[in-house]
Design brief:
Layout lengths: L2 H26 L13 H7 L2 H4 L7 E4 L5 E5 L14 H11 L11 H14 L9 H12 L4 H8 L3 H21 L2 H11 L9 H9 L8 H10 L12 H17 L8 H9 L21 H14 L4 H6 L3 E4 L3 H14 L7 E7 L6 E6 L2 E2 L6 E2 L9 E2 L5 H10 L7 E3 L4 E8 L7 H4 L2 E5 L7 E3 H7 L2 H11 L3 H10 L11 H7 L10 E2 L1 H12 L4 E2 L4 E5 L20 E2 L5 H16 L16 E6 L5 E7 L4 E7 L14 H13 L13 H5 L31 E2 L2 E2 L11
Helix pairs in contact: 1-5, 1-8, 2-8, 4-11, 4-12, 6-7, 6-8, 6-9, 11-12, 16-25, 17-20, 17-21, 19-24, 21-23
Length: about 725
């Protein structure tokens, strides 16, 4: 050994001696200069123990579960799965103690003798052969490091040099003594095994066992345990996956140490030599999914749920990543899978057109599925980070006629009310806006709307809804005297108008946008499904929720500052609209899917009463179908989310097909209920709606397209102002 090397060795040894002496001083003296350490007695030790060390082991990964209990994904900053003492192999515990702190079961948290011995051994070898601090001290250091709230606290937890380094060592020693007086040895060891970093992104023994050997911590063998115990001091340098030779050398050091301490009973020197000669046999595992980008199913549902947790429930991302929470969600894996496939049957993954399927449970607000022909969060062209289900980007067309019908029924206008609009066009007497065909003189500046195709001149509300007549519903708005009733009804049923892409409800009302009933406003697909779910729930409106329960690390409901569970059963408003109005409309809308004049026949599923409505935005920029049963409500919207594009077809085509492709197999083994009967008074003194008939097999009854006037900007039409504009006429 050269003089320089010898000097370095002696210098390191001297440093260890100084630290050891300081630790002894910290144990013996009531106050260590300037550090504020209290006298070493039980009361003062326990009083000073910080909450980070009185809590249990860091909680580990938060798990997100589907409604059937299957794993959707995890959230974690550190890949850690906490395990109990009896879930860790005894040989693993022994290996760690032998190489890190062989006097663990004898000392009281500090081991000056062990520290000096380790110092001499390690300095002589030129590498770490034995741990210098006790396991208890290491637990203190790791806990304070992981629970640090700032860069300064993290630096304090790892400070090595000068007075600061000595102060840190003294504090660790002080807290180690307190821990030993508070907890039994086995708990301290278990907590340490759950917190320590083993490399390869694995924190804690369970994650490490899975990452390196694809086994559980309870099933680790002697060679595996020795390998993992050796990683604690240098997880990168001794990584058996990336540095197998270093890994084998380090493993053998642990095996030799265990043998020397008499903990390999029955093992002969020859057997030990043979064991050491074997290379490390790794079986690398896959890190558990982390975040919504890794979701096993329902990536967009996951993103919506994450936003709900952080923004609605106020759970911090830090708690989500480190709190060991269990999030029990409403996702129905079967419906989600069928929705995914149904969308892809119609539109390939990454197509310019997005097919957005959103399903909820009426009366609860539970979000059951969120499908789209996109992958969540990745960087490929077929990927998307915006949750299109909750973004209001396109109009929903004639699905809005239901809101006008509901407002009319509530106002006393009965379903048998007949309105005649000759010539498939109607000029409003209330709303100003674009003229039909651009003929300003003909309309005298009043809003004019047309149907596309041949319609009876005279229809009642039942026939107008089922056939989706544009002219009837603008005329019905006239009878209501404005749009306030339909707009407020839409809000009460579940639509929101608070996104930057939308007019607010007040703007629509103040502007008296006559095109409201034709679905001019940008609409979030989830809002649309939720509004129709109110019909299925006999007028009860619910706020969509993706979460049933959030449990803390101990399996108890997570509570807020008021001590009450964050997830509460208070997201529904009974009788948000009158039950008789909801039931009457639901019965009428069954004709949209089941009668031979309905526009949504492709969504019909024999044996199930489905109330439905199609919608087509102007220029076929967006098409929609929304269907509801007492148990399920779902919307399907098809549009280009990035630009205007004629999608081809109408709401009764792709959207209705996706709906049926999803629910036909899903409902094959599930009964659905009939809607409560319509109110005879609302129907017109008992006058019944036309009896639905099954459509002829293979027959196609297209829904009505949009009127042909251009779409003006923000309440103007054809360059001239009008308070009924918004956009021009829309079809269904």
């Amino acid at each position: 050994m050269s003089a320089v090397s010898r000097a370095r060795v002696l210098g390191k040894l001297a440093a260890f001696v100084v630290v050891a002496g300081a630790l002894v001083a910290g144990m013996l003296f009531p106050l260590v200069g300037g550090t504020g350490l209290a006298a070493r007695n039980s009361a003062s030790l326990l009083d000073a123990l910080p909450v980070e060390l009185t809590d249990a082991t860091p909680a580990g990964n938060s798990r997100v579960l589907a409604a059937d209990g299957s794993l959707i994904t995890n959230f974690y900053a550190h890949n850690r799965t906490v395990v109990a003492a009896d879930q860790i192999a005894d040989v693993m515990k022994q290996a760690l103690v032998d190489i890190e702190d062989s006097r663990f079961y004898e000392h009281n948290g500090l081991d000056v003798q062990g520290t000096l011995r380790a110092a001499v051994t390690n300095v002589a070898a030129g590498s770490v052969q034995e741990g210098g601090s006790t396991i208890t001290q290491q637990l203190v250091k790791q806990t304070l490091l992981e629970t640090a709230d700032s860069a300064e606290e993290r630096q304090e937890a790892i400070e090595q040099d000068g007075v600061e380094g000595l102060s840190r060592k003294l504090r660790e020693a002080r807290l180690a003594l307190a821990l030993e007086e508070t907890y039994p040895k086995d708990e301290i060891l278990t907590r340490y095994l759950n917190i320590v970093y083993f490399g390869q992104g694995a924190y804690g023994i369970q994650a490490a066992a899975q990452q390196y050997f694809s086994v559980n911590a309870a099933d680790l063998t002697l060679p595996q345990a020795a390998m993992l115990a050796g990683l604690v001091q240098s997880p990168t340098n001794d990584d058996p996956i990336t540095n197998p030779e270093n890994g084998q050398t380090r493993r053998n050091q642990v095996l030799q140490r265990m043998y020397d301490l008499g903990h390999l009973e029955g093992t002969t020197p020859e057997q030990l030599a043979a064991l050491m000669a074997e290379p490390v046999q790794v079986a690398p595992g896959v890190s558990p999914p982390n975040g919504c980008i890794d979701a096993a199913i329902g990536g967009f549902f996951c993103a919506f749920m994450q936003q709900y947790l952080t923004q609605t429930l106020g759970i911090s991302q830090e708690l989500l990543d480190n709190g060991g929470l269990t999030i029990q969600t409403t996702l129905d894996p079967q419906l989600q899978t069928l929705g995914d496939q149904a969308v892809l049957n119609t539109l390939p993954m990454g197509d310019q057109l997005a097919g957005v399927f959103t399903a909820l449970k009426p009366g609860t607000g539970d979000v059951l599925a969120m499908s789209v022909n996109r992958r969540f969060g990745c960087s490929d062209p077929e990927c998307e980070s915006v949750v299109l289900h909750t973004a209001a980007s396109k109009g929903a067309g004639s699905t809005y006629k239901t809101f006008t019908a509901a407002a009319a029924l509530e106002a006393g206008i009965r379903a048998n009310t007949v309105i005649t609009t000759p010539g498939d066009r109607y000029t409003s007497r209330v709303f100003r806006g674009p003229a039909c065909g651009g003929d300003r003189e003909q309309s005298d500046g009043m809003y004019c709307v047309e149907n596309v195709g041949d319609y009876p001149d005279t229809l009642d509300m039942v026939g107008a809804l089922v056939r989706s007549s544009n002219t009837y519903f603008v005329a019905l708005e006239d009878r209501l005297g404005g749009v306030e009733g339909p707009v407020r009804m839409a809000e009460r049923m579940g639509l929101t108008f608070d996104q930057p892409t939308q007019h607010s409800a007040e703007e629509i009302i103040d502007g008296n946008f006559g095109s409201f009933t034709l679905g001019a406003e940008a609409t979030a697909p989830m809002d649309l499904a939720n509004a129709y779910a109110t019909l299925g729930a006999q007028g009860t409106r619910c706020t969509p929720t993706p979460v049933v329960q959030v449990l803390d690390r101990n399996g108890q409901p997570l509570t807020g500052d008021d001590g009450q569970p964050l997830v509460r059963d208070d997201n529904c408003t009974p009788e948000s609209i009158p039950a008789n109005v909801a039931n009457t409309l639901a019965n009428i809308l069954v004709g949209d899917t089941a009668s031979n004049v309905g526009t949504g026949q492709r969504a019909n599923i024999p044996g199930h009463a489905i109330a439905g409505k199609t919608g087509t935005a102007q220029g076929r920029d967006s098409v929609a179908f929304v269907g509801v049963m007492p148990e399920y409500a779902a919307s399907v919207m098809v549009f280009n989310p990035k630009e205007q594009q004629d999608v081809g077809g109408y709401g009764g085509n792709m959207p209705a097909t996706i709906f049926a492709d999803t629910f036909a197999p899903y409902l094959a083994d599930k009964p659905t209920s009939a809607f409560p009967p319509a109110d005879p008074v609302l129907m017109g003194q008992g006058s019944p709606a036309p009896q639905p008939t099954q459509p002829t097999q293979g027959a196609e009854q297209p829904d009505q397209g949009p009127a042909d006037q251009p779409a003006p900007d923000q309440g103007t039409a054809n360059g001239w102002p009008g308070n009924g504009g918004g956009w021009g006429g829309f079809g269904n």
